Fold:
Amino acid sequence: MDPQFKKQLDDLLVTGRAAEKIDRNRAEAFELFSKNESWKLYTELLNSKIQLFADAMLTPAGSVDGAVALEFVKGAMSGLIMARDLPSVIVGAMKASVPAAGGDDE
Structure:
């Protein structure tokens, strides 16, 4: 095998393992965090704000300015949905991933 290619492959494996460790740490922390009563209160708050934005999205724009304002509402709503769902997505992705046997790919 070409030595330069081998070095690139080794560097990618090291980078991948480091990223997997970070992802695993995040998933473990988010899993604990999501079981906490504070997280439930936080998601209730996010859900109420998301519902307010959803209600605003259902009203007629009425004008070009109103349509532009609804774009802001849509972006803010998307951000809140991402803040609410990202921890559970990360936990689910880590549970679904198959770890390398013994952490050795050779």
